[in-house]
Specification:
By secondary structure, this protein is α/β, with parallel strands linked by helices. It has two domains: about 60 residues, Roll (Urease, subunit C, domain 1); about 290 residues, Metal-dependent hydrolases (TIM Barrel, Alpha-Beta Barrel). The chain is built from nine helices and 22 strands. The protein starts with a strand and ends with a strand. It catalyses: N-acetyl-D-glucosamine 6-phosphate + H2O = D-glucosamine 6-phosphate + acetate. It comes from Anaeromicropila populeti.
Length: about 375
């Protein structure tokens, strides 16, 4: 396959006019035969996006612990240009987490987005900043629990979120930092505690600003500590509900586009009509772009997929398209250690690519070298 005359997002994180060559499911330098040619004149060619933090979509949730759910989610994501996925768990009873991990261990990507790992969000979180997490099942960081879940998943856990102020958190970070990325999340930690956690091996912050103390000029907290640790990446949810456009712009200036990972944090109502759904065993009321717990009105994830988050960041918040794609494709793949196979239009990598028009509407999705979706 040859994609001709596109504005191609290249490894220098800039767009350059040119052609893209695909063979045997991979990006290559050239092809022998022009058996399939797509004229992409006037279109952007960007790498398929990677969402490392979402819970569900299309009426399904990763915590349903069913192969049907994972497959349906993978297909929905691919339809929207998200070609690599790392879905997130919730704070649940251990036996339910075990079922989720067992399902993930046997799941194989057949159609839809490639399943690239698990984001274990909970149960090692703070009750004070629990957000939509179920308080009854919260616990302090437990290495034995993690190791059991990781074994059941077949080693697919790539990211573990925790509150660093909890008992045993620092020892846990040091014990697992070579196996997974540790992320600070749902935390009431002060600057010093967050700084210590990052120095001990954590390198990521889950949905920055949400479920943590705000940035204060005398108490910078987790946000300030993350800013000062140069190797720390931070997640942001650009759905128009979780972060004001002004703060999105400020965050890109504060951290730079090398360190921002755009996520959706979407729940099962994404792509579905308004109504009442569930997240982590709790009822969620969805109206328009907003999802809240029925019990207390807390934000309960989003109902916006990652490609729509990219559009919002660019068209509403004024973030350069290059920076948004970098945050949603490049940095996300790097965060969970899959950048050797995904995240850029590079020779030898999986040929996952999205063609966008000038309004950032999807014109085509190329998945594993095949035309998965075409809008013309």
């Amino acid at each position: 396959m040859i994609i001709k005359n596109a504005e191609v997002f290249c490894e220098d994180n800039q767009f350059h006019w040119g052609d893209v060559f695909i063979q045997d499911g991979l990006f290559v330098n050239s092809v022998q035969e022009e058996d399939s040619v797509i004229d992409a004149s006037g279109l952007y060619a960007v790498p398929g996006l990677t969402d490392i933090h979402f819970h569900g979509c299309a009426g399904y949730d990763f915590c349903d612990a069913s192969l049907e759910a994972v497959q349906a989610m993978a297909e929905y994501q691919a339809e929207h240009g998200i070609t690599s996925i790392c879905p997130a768990t919730m704070t649940l009873p251990e036996e339910e987490l075990e079922k989720i991990m067992q399902t993930a261990e046997v799941y194989e990507s057949i159609s839809g987005a490639d399943f690239c790992g698990i984001h274990m969000e909970g149960p090692f979180l703070s009750a004070k900043r629990k957000g939509a997490q179920h308080e009854s099942y919260l616990q302090k960081p437990n290495l034995k629990v993690f190791q059991k879940l990781q074994k059941l998943s077949g080693g697919k856990i790539k990211l573990v979120s925790l509150a660093p102020e909890l008992t045993d958190a620092m020892d846990f970070i040091e014990a697992v930092k070579e196996q997974v990325m540790v992320s600070l999340a749902h935390t009431d930690a002060d600057y010093e505690t967050a700084k210590e956690a990052l120095e001990k091996g954590a390198g990521h912050v889950t949905h920055l600003y949400n479920a943590m103390p705000p940035l204060h000029h005398r108490n910078p907290g987790v946000i300030g500590a993350a800013r000062d640790q140069e190797n720390c990446r931070v997640e942001i949810i650009c759905d128009g509900m979780h972060i004001h456009p002004s703060v999105i712009r400020a965050t890109f200036e504060l951290f730079g586009d090398n360190r921002i990972v755009m996520i959706s944090d979407s729940m099962r109502a994404t792509g579905m009509p308004d109504g009442v759904y569930t997240l982590g065993g709790q009822e969620v009321e969805v109206c328009g772009r907003k999802a809240v717990l029925k019990s207390d009105g807390s934000l309960a994830g989003s109902v916006t997929n990652l490609m729509d988050c990219v559009r919002y960041a660019v068209l509403q918040a004024g973030i350069p398209l290059e920076s948004a794609i970098k945050a949603a494709a490049v940095n996300s793949a790097k965060a969970i250690g899959i950048y050797d196979k995904y995240g850029s239009i590079t020779f030898g990598k999986a040929a996952n690519l999205v063609l966008l028009n000038q309004k950032l509407e999807i014109q085509a999705v190329i998945l594993r070298g095949e035309l998965y979706k075409c809008n013309w």
